[in-house]
Design goal:
Length: 270
């Protein structure tokens, strides 16, 4: 018999919470461990423990569902968004959501999403097969330090002070940072934020395997680049998934070609 998934229902609408509770009650190996009406109560419930999965709405009073997810602790519960707003799906998956279910939520669709969450649950040591235990034992623990600077693990957040408060941003959510008129802007899937960090300071804080100083005025996360357009200068214009353009200098373009295993251009011979 499988351990039941402990599910927290988070929605500011009473009818939506009741519908989800009714659907969950009919599913095997699932138990409702609580309900939350806003982002703050979600975080409080998660801190209290005993939550495996959060069924999370996007629009709630105070913190949005995406904001609340960004503040969940390392190793926290899996998140399944249940919302009427399809336009946030890409952002949700970029933040690590297990699934994105549109309202009105149907039983079969909800069960499929929960099975996806269950598949990501760690297998208890006493329940694991010998093969699974051997596989887990072969996986080395994460390194204590990041390859770039002080971010540490992949779950670390970069704190960015703003007028609305301190924004905690996952490095994976940052597409690039640029210097304009002596001010640095950090571009993320959560929005764009002015910061007092210099580009050198950001480069030291972010994972070096993803972030590259491609120009004296730009730092770029290659994971967000969808296209590199050649320029007459020998550089590139990098296009990000959100539609931004970042200039890549000629020297940085050479390094990118080497990294990507591309054939040398004529400008590389000079």
């Amino acid at each position: 018999m499988r351990e039941p998934l402990r599910v927290l229902i988070a929605d500011d609408e009473l009818l939506a919470r009741k519908r989800l509770a009714r659907l969950l009650a009919a599913l095997p190996d699932v138990s409702v461990c609580g309900e939350a009406v806003d982002g703050d109560s979600v975080l409080a419930a998660v801190r209290a423990g005993g939550v495996d999965v959060v069924l999370l709405d996007i629009h709630m009073p105070g913190l949005s569902g995406l904001d609340a997810m960004a503040l969940l602790p390392q190793g926290g519960p899996h998140v399944i968004f249940c919302t009427a707003h399809a336009e946030h799906a890409v952002n949700a998956f970029e933040h690590g959501a297990v699934d994105y279910v549109l309202k009105p939520v149907e039983a079969a669709r909800l069960q499929k999403a929960l099975e996806r969450a269950r598949a990501r649950q760690p297998v208890p040591a006493q329940a694991a097969t010998p093969a699974a235990r051997a596989k887990n034992a072969a996986v080395p623990p994460p390194a204590a330090g990041g390859t770039g600077g002080g971010m540490g693990s992949a779950f670390a957040r970069l704190p960015i002070p703003t007028r609305q408060g301190l924004v905690l941003v996952s490095p994976d959510a940052i597409s690039h940072a640029s210097l304009e008129d002596e001010l640095v802007t950090v571009f993320t899937t959560q929005g764009d934020f002015l910061t007092d960090f210099t580009l050198n300071e950001l480069a030291d804080k972010l994972p070096a395997e993803h972030f590259h100083r491609v120009h004296r005025r730009a730092l770029l996360n290659l994971a967000h680049v969808t296209r590199l357009e050649p320029l007459e200068t020998g550089g590139y214009l990098a296009r990000t998934a959100r539609g931004h353009s970042v200039e890549v200098s000629r020297q940085s373009a050479r390094e990118l070609r080497r990294m990507l295993g591309l054939r040398k251009g004529a400008e590389d011979e000079g």
